[in-house]
Write a structure and sequence with these properties.
Elements (H helix, E strand, L loop, with lengths): L8 E2 L3 H13 L3 H9 L15 H10 E2 L4 E4 L2 E4 L2 H8 L23 H10 L5 H20 L26 H18 L4 E2 L3 H9 L2
Parallel strand pairs: 1-5
Antiparallel strand pairs: 2-3, 3-4
Helix pairs in contact: 4-7, 5-6
Protein name: Aminotransferase-like plant mobile domain-containing protein
């Protein structure tokens, strides 16, 4: 018998983000779409309804070397960095780190992804406070399901800090945070034998396709 193929389950869901953005467009949520553009997340409108084959994901995860941040492939080595991620996503690769500290924050409910998505749809936009709440719900969904996914069904305490103050989300160096999360996820998958990889698979494919 041949060697059993290793599997990789990714919690990153481009299709989830694609559906959410499509729903906002279909509902003619002009104010919400404008708010998304304002905080620098307009690139999410371009996320495709992807369904990626297991073999490709496993191959890319196994080929990624965390320390040099490089994919070692037959077609050549591909270096991954925050600048590349920022260029593809259309977000600045500079700014402050989010300092994602693992602790519970008072007054912040740990909600499921479905609850957060429904709040994105239902949240009013009448006041400044409403707009800040919308930003908070939206960023949490995007982090949980796309940029910094986890195996949990609810948001992680790691996701909380960037949304405590959403007055200027552009101040964070999102590409670097995504890259750091990606490094950790692949390392856990490879070294600890995790079946699930908590990485942004879009980064994996972008790194490959950029070659």
């Amino acid at each position: 018998m041949g060697k059993k193929q290793k599997l990789l389950e990714s919690r990153c869901s481009p299709s989830y983000i694609h559906d959410m953005m499509s729903t906002l467009s279909k509902n003619n949520s002009v104010e919400k779409l404008a708010e998304i553009d304002l905080i620098g997340f307009g690139f999410l409108r371009l996320v495709p309804n992807w369904s990626v084959k297991q073999a490709i994901m496993v191959h890319l995860a196994e080929s990624y070397q965390v320390k040099p941040r490089t994919f070692i492939l037959d077609i050549g080595n591909i270096r991954l960095n925050a600048e590349l991620i920022g260029k593809v996503f259309g977000i600045p690769s500079r700014g402050n780190l989010c300092y994602l500290v693992l602790r519970r924050h008072a007054g912040v409910n740990i909600r499921s992804t479905t609850e957060l998505r429904d709040l994105v749809y239902r949240c009013p936009m009448a006041t400044e406070s409403d707009r800040m709440e919308f930003r908070r719900y939206f960023i949490l969904v995007v982090m949980k399901m796309f940029l910094c996914p986890t195996t949990q069904q609810v948001i992680s305490p790691w996701h909380i800090h960037p949304v405590l103050d959403v007055s200027d989300p552009r101040r964070f160096n999102w590409p670097l945070e995504i890259l750091k999360w990606f490094d950790t996820a692949v390392e856990k998958y490879k070294l600890k034998g995790n079946k699930t990889c908590e990485d942004c698979m879009f980064v994996m494919l972008v790194g490959h396709n950029d070659h």
